[in-house]
Model the fold of this input.
Amino acid sequence: MDLLDPLFLTALLKIIGVNIILSGDNAVVIALAARSLEGRQQKLAIFWGSGAAIIMRIALTVFAVKLLAFPWLKIVGAGLLLWIGIKLLVPEDEDAHIAGHSNLLAAIKTILIADLVMSLDNVIAVAAAADAAPAEFKISLLVLGLAISIPLIIFASTILMKLMERFPIIITLGAALLGFVAGEMAITDPVDIDWINANAGWMHYIVPAAAAAVVVVIGKALAKRQIEQGAAVS
Done:
């Protein structure tokens, strides 16, 4: 495996990017679940809960990559990824409540369950990013990409969230990246890849760019409408 291979590096950066953009909420859940524990137990809950979540997410993503080899599933996955990208740009109601625990095992259990429930978008996006790389790189990319990005999320989540609040363009770029990856996924499905390669190679450039634009345009429009409706109600 050549770590300097452009295809490898591009896919690795995509995996790290989409995982960081989509995992801010997961980091918040970890902090909330462990907030009632005492010093050393709090650190243990974060360490073991995060470690178990990482292993679970790697296993789920490897499984997702295997599934993408079946016809039509990439097209379905591309549609889901477009929806996830659009949803990223629409403000959410802050009404979620995560219970803090005074028991170490209970906190770890909460972290693991919450991460499982919230990781569908991450799994789909990371699997799609890895799928664009050569077959011999995929598993290595998944492990390396998640190994790099998840510790960043855990230890720098506060900084990341502040940066996203201060520079909203980061969220927009992240949503566009998801749209781009969705476009790549849709045109590499076993159903259409041979025809596209033989008759419409230009689609490898136009479709991902168009998908990125669609995510940003629709996401921004829905966000604007939601803000206007909120203002009208108040």
